[in-house]
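The instructor's notes for this session suggest beginning with a concrete chain rather than abstract definitions. Hand out the sequence below and ask the class to guess, before any prediction is shown, which regions might be ordered.
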Amino acid sequence: RDRAAAGLIVCGLKLNQDARRNDMVLEKGNIYITFPVWSKEGLQKRQFCKLESQAKYKEFEMARDEELQKMAKSSNILIKALHYRNAVAATESMDNTGLH
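After discussion, reveal the predicted structure:
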């Protein structure tokens, strides 16, 4: 995977006996563990994308909360429905950021 932003390291271990800790038991046998690894540039790019997504998420969250407050304050059923619809749309936008 030349020039890929990320890759994997897979480690295989063989346990000769059960490993116990508290209520957890790893039974003897083969265990495979996968670790994600990033190129420096790939990690920086993904971190930047994550920051952008977090900012958008916060923006949509604030819009949702404002719409819910407006809905609670209104006595008009049609206005309540409008603000509820706007709050649902903001929640859907939060979901689309990939963080929710």
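Then share the key points. Residues 69 and 83 are 9 Å apart (CA to CA). DSSP finds two helices and four strands in the chain.
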